[in-house]
Design brief:
The protein is about 70% helix and about 0% strand. The chain is mainly alpha-helical and about 375 residues long. The chain has one domain. It starts with 9 loop residues before the first helix and ends with a helix. The relative contact order is 0.15.
Length: about 375
């Protein structure tokens, strides 16, 4: 195995920041999408069905991959119990804080907007956390991602407790996805998963029923974890980056054509569409990883460190801020350009403002995924 690099991978941090930023912008777009979301503007745009395909296949998959990579870097000099403790300290407080404080305003506004609730936020909160509410299911909204990352991390930490098995698995992954196989094999896997599981399970974001999502998301999470320290694999990403890019450029228009064809899912159970989706999915991820590794691997600096610390608190805050902003602006019937720009500014600006506030208040830092001040002294 190659000696792990001594320094942080700045490209992974940049990708993570950019992917979360893109996710926030995407959620603003969902306010205008022609399908159901938590809240909607009075304006709806059918073409967003096709525009969403620019990021839909790969956006979250890329986040799961780099999350696996980041976990491997974090764990390389720590005992499994230390890794487990660190992951729980980072993810558990924000998850439970979010469930209790950040999600209820979203779900309350959604219920008010859709006419299924007419009382205030207080009664809604009490109903959600009543015995009947627990039986019906507590809304997770955007925190499903935090839950999934937590569960996947627990599974992978179990591999670290079996060092010989983990090393053998890492070597097997390095061979199976080495060279040209790095371009092809993940596409085959993702196509098989989509063809066999998506039609049945879809995307529920419910931990116990989301089998297609688990197969794809955990698959790439594990892939990122196993390949993270293999310098030859990163060299392959760089060497194949133009092939990845060319493949993605060809796959996206084909995917849009399939999306526009109402009969696309009737031919062989949607086989061609599902293959095209998987090809676009992995080709775009490979493009991002290859070019980032080539050009910004060492592009560290104060801005990146600020954004790296800010991204998780901003993610936690953004959807609550967005839903509140839609609730406030919707009755005003603003022109769509003014409304959309206001939503974007309020959501991004408000999220950064939340970060600027919470990072200065020691007792609540862990609730927002930030280390206590005592653990930041001397860091970096």
């Amino acid at each position: 195995m190659s000696t792990p690099p001594a320094n942080r991978r700045a490209d992974i941090d940049w990708i993570r920041v950019a992917a979360f930023g893109l996710l926030i912008i995407y959620h603003v777009g969902l306010v205008y999408a022609p399908w159901d979301w938590h809240v909607h503007s009075r304006h709806t745009f059918e073409p967003l069905r096709y525009a969403a395909l620019v990021t839909n296949p790969w956006r979250l998959t890329l986040l799961f991959f780099v999350s696996g990579v980041a976990l491997r870097f974090m764990s390389r000099r720590r005992a499994p119990v230390e890794v487990l403790r660190a992951r729980l300290a980072r993810l558990a407080p924000p998850f439970f804080f979010g469930i209790l404080v950040l999600v209820p305003p979203q779900s309350w506004i959604e219920a008010m907007d859709k006419g299924t609730w007419t009382q205030g936020l207080g009664p809604w909160w009490l109903s959600q956390f009543s015995p009947q509410g627990f039986v019906a299911g507590i809304p997770l909204n955007h925190l499903w991602f935090v839950l999934y990352i937590s569960v996947y991390s627990l599974i992978v930490v179990g591999l670290l407790a079996l060092p010989r098995f983990q090393l053998a698995l890492e070597r097997a992954f390095a061979w199976a996805f080495g060279g040209w196989r790095l371009w092809l094999m993940p596409m085959i896997y993702l196509a098989i998963v989509r063809q066999n599981l998506f039609a049945t399970y879809g995307l529920s974001n419910h931990l116990t029923t989301d089998w297609y999502n688990h197969a794809a998301a955990f698959g790439v999470f594990l892939l990122g974890f196993q390949l993270a320290l293999r310098d030859k694999v990163w060299a392959d990403f760089e060497r194949l980056r133009w092939l990845f890019l060319g493949t993605a450029i060809c796959a996206l228009p084909a995917l849009i054509v399939f999306e526009a064809d109402p009969n696309a899912m009737l031919v062989n159970g949607g086989l061609l569409k599902n293959i095209t989706f998987a090809v676009d999915q992995w080709a775009t991820i490979g493009t991002v990883l290859g070019f980032a590794s080539r050009h910004i691997r060492t592009a560290d600096g104060p801005l990146l460190r600020y954004l790296t610390d800010a991204v998780f608190p901003c993610y936690l805050a953004h959807q609550t801020l967005l839903v509140i902003a839609v609730w406030i602006l919707k009755p005003l019937s603003l022109p769509v350009a003014l409304e959309a720009s206001s939503l974007l500014i309020f959501t991004l600006g408000g999220s950064l403002l939340v970060y600027e506030c919470v990072r200065r208040i020691g007792p609540i830092r862990p609730l927002w995924g930030l280390k206590p001040f005592s653990e930041t002294k001397g860091a970096r």
